[in-house]
Specification:
The complex is a heterotrimer of chains A (about 750), B (about 90) and C (about 220). Chain A is mostly helical. Chain A is about 70% helix and about 0% strand. Chain A has a two-stranded antiparallel ribbon with strand order 1-2. By secondary structure, chain C is an alpha+beta fold. Chain C folds into two domains: about 70 residues, no CATH class; about 120 residues, Sandwich (Immunoglobulin-like), CATH 2.60.40. Chain C contains three helices and ten strands, in the order H-H-E-E-E-E-E-E-E-E-E-E-H. The radius of gyration of chain C is 26 Å and the shape is elongated. The mean pLDDT of chain C is about 90. Classes of the chains: A mainly alpha (about 750), B mainly alpha (about 90), C alpha+beta (about 220).
Chain lengths: ~750, ~90, ~220
């Protein structure tokens, strides 16, 4: 296959630049769709008497607008640039796990389609707002299956994001070329690292919320319909994710701005190391502020006061990040190019947005601001103003690098001005509408709000077409633009300096060889999509697609099983301070960090509802202690057998390896057989089932999640056995055994806590 | 051989600790004290498995940072949620 | 708004103005620096990049610490005033000195139950000049009971009882003034129209009405 356009190429690629393009184009399509939704909302709000959108339609519109903009447009556009430019900046061949990168993309696309499909289902889609508050989101108040489909679409996206974060963290830590030390790492890559680190630690909490909400909706558990769990439990799980999420959205844009501004000021970023430290502080603090979304829920004042202080504290490093970029301009030699204009716009918006954010940190002010349009203005200034204008700076900045062409600068500058004016006209009036409730489609008793809403809508009608024209300008330049110089901006960053010429995905420049192109990521992602639909709508579909996923996984690893010896693994060139780990082991540990949060959140949900319950059945009455203890010892022994297996192959003892793996498999199967074949039937026969209350719900959900992890581990152990029996492991090459072992021990550790928490206490 | 014996010894400690946990349940003390004691034993078991079986003790200490940060974040979530409603 | 300004609202607006002034000064400072630098330090097209001696990292570090300290002091000040006003808003006066009204939010209206058991739908009558505590809950989903003119609201959560309180001002010569009550949390398709009225009555008129409720059937205007 030689160059030129080929659908097969785009469906089977694992190349980071091509995947970057896929993310970019897909995210822009979602922007247009969600932008159209926003336009209809603004029209409804400016002319509410026309009744264009009834409250149910409006609710679905605002929900989809929020979800798509935040999760399917803003973040993915940042990931698009990350995909394209992080490997170029750090001198890596590609991401650490290219096939998984493709899976991330396809899961992202399919999850978005799944979300949109929910609206067309009987009964409509989700209308609870993007925050999916409980108990509104339970089947009692939102019965339509479209809601379940939407929740699972969100779960698919969470999976896509988790895979991406493992991939990017491993890449940035492990795949840097020689000389690319942390000190020299470009700021955009730092921004991406901060983003994916937050993704790793924040998304699992959302994932657990989704799992439990799905269990509530599909299996009838009561996590969010009970009074003990209910709205506050969802609030905690959601906002623990939700606050870091807004930083996840804005950090890539800040990284882009920090590249663009020094380039066009022709000065280095003012105090780059300090800037990176401040960025890290913002990232770390963003995990510690989420309760400011819950200031009026009536939970303990001491807790709320603590979080008010942390929220005020995060302003300090954040302001340092902004001021660092402003100070870069001092005594500089600035050129006003299109990217620089957008970076200026983004700076303007982050100052305004950031300051209005400080208002929200005050508990006292929240008493009037909560649920009104002041906050809507605030977050649109940061999430839309800073993020979109920041990423647009990146779009124009890197356009010549990606395409080898230049766009019409005069049109782009003019459109920038129109967009800047339109944006402010759209969002600034919202600060004067603080008493107008959010998510209302009409306001019949307050006609005094109409002029401001009209003004805001006028801004939308100015901004949106200008934005669309701007994209069309770029699309035109893509095909008909004049050829650009190699480094038209005279930038100093590695992707410009070290790699002359356009690094183009859209031509044959890097060759389109057969290697690295595989249909497996697309197939696997599609089957996972079917599985998600199955969980929402049809158990048989879920089971069939699960079986197909297993088959695909086996096929994915068929080369690994067949080959007797593997090529000597890559050596990291710059990997301080992770000296002793291989790429795959690092990937496993990064993944386990997210698993800690997943299991931790599930266990925390159990502890939370238990503390909130006045009575709880005693463990001794409910659970069979003998079986529990037996299973605990079985699992411990399986950890022993797998580590002995590893030790054997390290000594060259192939028989010991097979014996150890075999024992692990038998013990794992025994664990599941005893639990599912004996213990659970006994419990169900006693009437301890999913309808009998939170004690049963939490038990089955938590130990069920654990059992699924054991089952997945068993699949991995079977793979190891298959390869070991064929002689695939040697003294030098046995890392898969170790890596699977690390996962297996983790699952064991989780049980070390589940056993006492459910059987003893 | 010596290494394998070490792993078996750790396994023995883990099994004994499990039995100890079960036994602690019967101790006559306030429920919260008993619960606390059991959790301490669980944490000890977890640390043993993590440092010996998962080799965290032998790897560069920096690798432990990944799970450690997760645990800190998790503790924050759990404490906030529980303290919030107490 | 021609209605007289309620008491807690004054404290709130005072705090808001403090934040506004501080925020404006901080924002204007950074923004003017941005605009000034952008205009002052324009480079000319084609001109070679002038030599620039980058200040040592220690200088940037010092500046960062100075900025951080100034911000920290300002933010700490804001925290202190916020907490003072928060105390006023969220800690109600003792119950035995107040009129306690149960507020039950549901899809999609508010029910108000007075101490004598009488309840009204969609209208809440309060006497001017007395502490009124609202004991707020929900019977179905998350709502929020908000009285924008009083600058106060509180979440209505099933299974929880949250408090907010007001002191209604003297309604003046008209004898009664009406304020809007709105729901500030999306609660389903009826959310936009989930509203009630707070009727601020002169104390003797309120007492007269309240005495009359003893003979009225449960639930009425």
């Amino acid at each position: 296959m030689s160059g030129g356009f080929s659908i097969r190429r785009w469906l089977t690629t694992t190349n980071h630049k091509e995947i970057g393009i896929l993310y970019m184009v897909t995210s822009l399509y979602f922007l247009v769709f969600a932008g159209f939704l926003a336009g209809s909302m603004r029209t409804q709000l400016a002319f509410p008497w026309l009744g264009l959108l009834d409250p149910f339609r409006y609710g679905q519109t605002v929900t989809l607008h929020g979800l798509i903009m935040i999760l399917w447009f803003l973040s993915p556009l940042g990931i698009a640039f990350a995909n394209y430019f992080v490997p170029l900046q750090i001198g890596a061949k590609d991401l650490a796990f290219p096939r998984l990168n493709a899976v991330s993309y396809w899961l992202y696309l399919f999850s978005g389609l799944m979300l949109v499909s929910s609206v067309f289902m009987p009964g409509g889609g989700p209308d609870t707002g993007w925050t999916l508050y409980a108990p509104l989101a339970t089947t009692q108040y939102t019965p339509q299956p479209g809601m379940t489909v939407a929740v699972l679409a969100l779960g698919l996206l969470a999976a896509s994001v988790t895979i991406s974060s493992v991939n990017f963290i491993t890449t940035i830590v492990w795949c840097r070329r020689k000389g690319m030390s942390w000190r020299v790492l470009p700021v955009f890559t730092w921004g991406v690292l901060a983003t994916v680190a937050l993704m790793l630690y924040a998304f699992p909490s959302l994932g657990v919320g989704i799992i439990l909400l799905t269990a509530d909706r599909v299996l009838g558990t009561m996590y969010f319909s009970s009074l003990q769990g209910g709205g506050i439990l969802w609030d905690q799980l959601f906002w623990f994710f939700g606050h870091p999420e807004v930083y996840i959205v804005v950090l890539p844009a800040l990284g882009v701005m920090a590249e663009v501004i020094p380039t066009f000021a022709r000065r280095p970023l003012f105090g780059k190391q300090i800037w990176v430290v401040e960025l890290t502080l913002v990232t770390v603090l963003s995990i510690m502020v989420w309760v400011h979304h819950m200031f009026l829920t009536g939970i303990s004042f001491d807790v709320r006061e603590t979080f008010m202080l942390t929220t005020l504290a995060i302003s300090v490093p954040f302001e340092g990040v902004v001021v660092g970029m402003v100070l870069t301009l001092r005594k500089a030699s600035i050129r006003i190019t299109v990217p620089m204009l957008y970076a200026f716009g983004a700076l303007f918006f982050v100052i305004l947005g950031g300051i209005t954010g400080v208002f929200q940190a005050s508990i006292a002010l929240d008493y009037a601001l909560r649920g009104g349009y002041f906050i809507v203005g605030h977050f649109h200034y940061v999430m839309v103003g800073t993020t979109i204008f920041g990423l647009w700076a990146g779009l124009f900045y890197w356009f010549p690098k990606m395409t080898g062409r230049m766009f019409n600068e005069w049109i782009a500058k003019l459109l920038f001005v129109v967009q800047f004016v339109g944006f402010n006209l759209l969002y600034f009036p919202m600060f004067f509408l603080m008493d107008m409730p959010r998510r209302v489609s009409e306001y019949p008793l307050n006609p005094e709000w109409i002029p401001l809403n009209l003004l805001s809508t006028a801004g939308a009608y100015i901004w949106a077409p200008a934005g669309l024209l701007g994209l069309l300008n770029l699309a035109y330049a893509l095909f008909k633009g004049r050829k650009s110089e190699e480094n038209p901006w005279q930038a100093q960053a590695p992707e410009w300096v070290n790699l002359p010429g356009p690094i183009v995905a859209l031509s044959n420049l890097n060759g389109y060889a057969e290697e690295g192109y595989t249909h497996l990521p697309l197939v696997a992602s599609f089957l996972i999509l079917l599985f998600a639909y199955g969980v929402a709508l049809s158990p048989s579909l879920a089971l069939v697609s699960l079986a197909a996923i297993l088959v695909t996984t086996a096929y994915w690893f068929r080369d690994h099983i067949r080959e007797k010896f593997s090529i000597v693994g890559e050596r990291a060139a710059e990997n301080w301070p992770f000296f002793t780990q291989s790429k795959e082991k690092l990937g496993v540990w990064v993944f386990l960090a997210s698993e800690i949060i997943i299991f931790g959140s599930i266990i925390s949900s159990y502890l939370y509802v238990r503390v909130a319950s006045i009575t709880w059945p005693a463990a001794t009455q409910t659970h069979n202690l003998t079986i529990g203890t037996l299973n605990t010892i079985i699992l411990l022994t399986s950890s022993l057998s797998i580590i002995l297996a590893l030790q054997s192959i390290k000594e060259g003892n192939r028989k010991g390896l097979i014996a150890g793996l075999g024992a692990t498999m038998i013990l794992g199967v025994a664990f599941l057989a005893i639990k599912l074949g004996f213990e659970w039937p006994e419990l169900l026969a006693k009437g301890f089932n999913l309808s009998s209350g939170l004690a049963a719900d939490t038990y089955y959900a938590t130990t069920g999640a654990h059992a699924i992890h054991v089952a997945v581990g068993l699949v991995a152990v079977i793979y190891l056995l298959a390869k070991a029996v064929r002689g695939g492991f040697t003294v030098e090459n046995h890392h898969a055994v170790e890596n699977v072992g690390v996962y297996w021990h983790f699952v064991d550790i989780v049980w070390m806590f589940l056993f006492p928490l459910f059987y003893l206490i | 051989m010596k290494e394998k014996g070490f792993y078996v010894a750790v396994w023995g400690i883990l099994v004994l600790a499990t039995i100890l946990e079960v036994a602690t349940r019967s101790i006559q003390a306030a429920a919260i004290v008993v619960a606390f004691g059991i959790i301490i034993i669980s944490i000890t078991k977890a640390v043993l498995i993590a440092s010996i079986y998962q080799h965290l003790w032998y790897e560069g200490k920096i690798l432990s940072l990944l799970p450690a940060v997760a645990l800190i974040a998790l503790t924050l979530l759990l404490l906030t949620a529980i303290l919030g409603v107490m | 708004m021609t209605s007289p300004t309620p008491l807690t609202a004054e404290a709130w607006w005072g705090l808001f103005q403090i934040f506004l002034v501080v925020g404006f000064i901080a924002g204007a400072t950074v923004m003017s620096a941005l605009i000034y630098y952008a205009l002052r330090y324009r480079g000319k097209e084609g001109e070679p990049v002038p030599h620039y001696e980058m200040p040592p990292l220690s200088q940037r570090a010092k500046e960062a610490v100075v900025f951080a300290s100034i911000s920290a002091v300002i933010l700490f000040g804001l925290a202190v005033v916020s907490l003072r006003v928060a105390d006023q808003i969220q800690y109600p006066p003792p119950r035995n000195e107040s009129l306690v009204i149960q507020v039950t939010a549901f899809q999609w209206d508010f029910r108000f139950t007075y101490p004598n058991g009488y309840s009204t739908l969609g209208v809440c009558r309060v006497p001017a000049g007395r502490n009124v505590i609202f004991n707020v809950t929900s019977t179905d989903v998350f709502h929020d009971f908000g009285i924008p003119d009083f600058r106060t609201k509180i979440d209505a959560i099933p299974g929880r009882y949250n408090l907010c309180w007001i002191v209604a001002p003297d309604p003046g010569p008209s004898g009664s003034v009406s304020y809007q009550i709105k729901c500030y949390e999306l609660c389903g398709a009826g959310h936009p129209l989930m509203m009630s009225n707070l009727l601020d009555m002169a104390p003797d008129q309120y007492d007269q009405w309240y005495r009359g409720t003893a003979s009225m059937p449960m639930g009425g205007p």
